[in-house]
Amino acid sequence: MSLSQVIFAFVYGICLLSSTQGEFTNGTAYYDYEHNQYYVKCGQLDKGDGSLAYGTFNDTTNTTGWGVLDVKFSGPSKSYEEDLVRMTAAGVMEGILTGERIHQTYLNNFQSFLAGKPQFAARLSEFYMKQNQWTRKMVAGNPDDPFWQGVSLVVAQLDGLLIGYNLKSCQRKTLPTLDLSAMLFLNGMGDILDLQYVLNGTSFPDIEKATPDELRNFFRMSGHCSVLIKALPGFEDIFMSHSTWFDYNSMLRIYKHYNFDLMFQGAAAKAMSFSSYPGMLESLDDFYILGSDMLMLQTTNDIYNQTLYKMVKPESLLAWQRVRVANLMANSGAEWGKIVAKYNSGTYNNQYMVVDRKRISGELLDGTLTVVEQIPGLVMSEDQTAILRAGYWPSYNIPFYETIYNLSGYPMMKKKRGNEESYQLYVRAEIFRRDQSTVTDMKSMMAIMRYNDYLHDKYSNKDPAWSICSRFDLRAKDAFAGGCTDTKITNLEMAKTFSAMAVSGPTTSHGIPVFRWTSAFNDSHIGLPESYNFPFVLMEPTL
Fold first, then answer.
1. What are the chain's domains?
2. Contacts of 259 (CB under 8 A, 6+ apart)
3. What family is this (predicted)?
4. Of 14, 226, 503, 526, which is most buried by a Cβ count within 10 Å?
């Protein structure tokens, strides 16, 4: 039996899984070499030699705003070929445990991005399928290259995810079958933010002719997230935090813990914990705690210079794939930047911040903070520890590197929108600069990352979208169901155990009303709670 037969084998199941909201489910994946089939036993966690991977899913969406998934190899892998089999099994476990939530997420995102756009949907599917075929061809053509071996492990997990989802749907007879293009759509969600322009799914405005208000409304949610990395004055602690900005119908969340004891020699991080979504093998936010003693956070930047998109082609690796491989293989921020730059797709163009805890020993040694920024055709990466030594590093959807800022077209947009496109004078830059010194502990870090006092803060100018944790739904004009959807925070001690504090939902800072789904918003929100007023909860691995 060939390796490809093992990885892409037909899968059968011998159990039924209920995913009643709030119910705790678990199971173990195996491989039947005689019949060339994976199978799953539910309701048990088998760590024996015959098992491959096991997992648990605690769906507490309606009580905390999060589901929590743990997936772990049942033992150490003994070869790279076995790595691939176990990674597929890990994907199978995730697909079968979270299948109902995957289907709900697919429906909600389809409505947001593809409904009423059949031509764009066809172009996007074609792009993703070509990219997928190219990726598999490169994996097959470079069997001894550590980088492509890393890519192959991610591909195997994706294959298992699809297998596991469809296994569950076949068992329960209630979930429609999803194909590979559907899983590529979900995992490429961030890349769509750029591909919608590349593939003409959305017409880009004429920046010279558009008014500031027209531009503001068009790019209202293209800026994705707020980050603050805060070092206490004596470096007693460092807090690392991330608040996602996205459409509210994305708030079907799963916090995930992976523990994969790979034989793969290139693996620097065999375990990781991260905020995520059903059906996605990446964070998307991004917020990762890695087994390499590193953390990675991310905010998204805009591309206003549309000529850059001419460099986007399917013969490349998408952002989510490169991030997963860099997270797996890098042992330093500098290595992370080099790996994520390989085969740059020029889609989901972000600022990535990598904190290396190994470089913190009383002092913050060079290499503690590496900042990476990507645009089509260019990835820049440099050590920015010197700035962190001064107390903090903020990130708020405007490029830090002048070269990236200029090539992306920000100077042109700044002439139209003023300080909204200024790295130094953007509203969140001003608020972070003013308030970061108030952070002394976890409670105060929670407060700044959920901060929104738009009615009284002079920098917000009475706009609920102009704060650290935005609420576009509260705007008097041009309101929509979008804004700050969560916050995740960890510190040096918690990161040692892959732990973080996390809250799901729009902020209620300074008496802001709780968000509720009403007739004012017609966004598809299948499976989401009707209102969001959840507390911070502790996230930590259970396996």
1. 3-187 (1.10.439.20), 222-539 (3.60.60.20)
2. 70, 71, 72, 73, 270, 271, 541, 543
3. Belongs to the phospholipase B-like family.
4. 226
